Amino acid sequence: MKRSAKLVLVLGSVFVAGAMPGGDLRSATTTVESGRSDDLRPLYANAADVAEGKRVAETSCVSCHGINGISTTEGTPHIAGQRPAYLWIELRAYKTGARGEKAMGAAAKSILSDEALLKVVAYYASLDPPQPAAASPKPRPEPLQAGKAAAAACAGCHGETGISKTAGIPSLAGLEPKYFAAAMKAYKTGQRKNEMMKPIAATLSDADVANVGQFYAAQKPAPGTIQKGADIGAGKTAAAACVGCHGEKGGPANAETPPLAGQDAQYLAAALKAYKDGSRADETMKGIAASVDDAAARNIAGYYAALQPQVSSQRKPLTIAEWAQRCDRCHGTNGNSTDPRLPALAAQRVDYLAKVLDAYRKGERQSKEMAAMSAVLTESDVENLAAYYGRQQARAVVYVIVPPK
Hints:
Strands 1-2 form a two-stranded antiparallel ribbon. It has helices at 29-33, 47-60, 62-65, 84-96, 102-110, 114-126, 143-150, 155-158, 177-189, 197-202, 206-217, 232-238, 243-246, 265-277, 283-289, 294-306, 320-331, 350-362, 368-374, 379-390; strands at 6-12, 396-402. It has 20 helices and two strands. It folds into two domains: 6-136 and 320-402, Orthogonal Bundle (Cytochrome Bc1 Complex, Chain D, domain 2); 143-306, Orthogonal Bundle (Cytochrome Bc1 Complex, Chain D, domain 2). Helix 2 (47-60) crosses helix 6, helix 14 (265-277) crosses helix 15 (283-289) and helix 14 (265-277) packs across helix 16 (294-306). Helices cover 47% and strands 3% of the residues. It is mainly alpha-helical.
């Protein structure tokens, strides 16, 4: 942008393609090709340019995006009223092969000149933006809500928040989700033999297990019941063999190893016995438990039960409202971007938004900023965020030229 004027963006109901005095469609081409978005500068697009853009769009774009920029094709975005600089940058990326989608690359290359490409951008950006979807998908329950509901089946033994009040029954509060998922899988497959747990685990889908794991990880653990007759000092000495995996203070070295600090002593002693007799299949634990007699198991269990329990390192899942606040920092309030380089999300096709978020989450679409944002999204987060932005009212942007002082 030239230093002689400022470009101010204001939300409104009309699109204006503004320019510096003396600007024209061709003048922007070389600066955009430099690859630096700061070099983008405003230019005029008059009625004749928009009309020509429509003519070009009729031969290259309408089969997917429609003449009104409102897509009726699953997974294909609406582009009516989209931010023009964003459209230009993306079309140039398709045309040069920087983005590899074949159909879009062919469509962009069919528009032979950059001037024609700019006129297509001006045409679609000038259109009224789409309306919110008439029927948005019903949002999935958020992870903690879904996890709490699914964990109701466990409350009879493990307590409503995963804190057991029954000797011999483990507390689940503060467990790492990965360990919880691995334990549930072991009950399902019979790797852990427990006739009560096997049918309960069988009723839970992978999504249920993930949500229940998130719910228990978010709960604050409480000290467990200490077994009578345990020699804590002897237990600490005997527990030296456990430190490598379970830590000096009973906190695990990784998310797939259970914390032992504050766990119920009777349960810990029974687990050691199960590893020893093979009713729990784990080669590492079987080798360690083989040399532990009943007295040593009681002491080790008593030592760990007496330690202060530690909270999970798992980040508490964000609500969709919290995720939207983060997305709005770049994409504008309710997805109405005021940055001409960044796309508006409001009233976009829900299936397209979900597809793009999933592509960023899996690394199939490259963006340093989007990769950082989307890496921790769950499938439920993706679906709920897409539905949220699909419900928002889309607004065009007015570009106002402010004369220099």
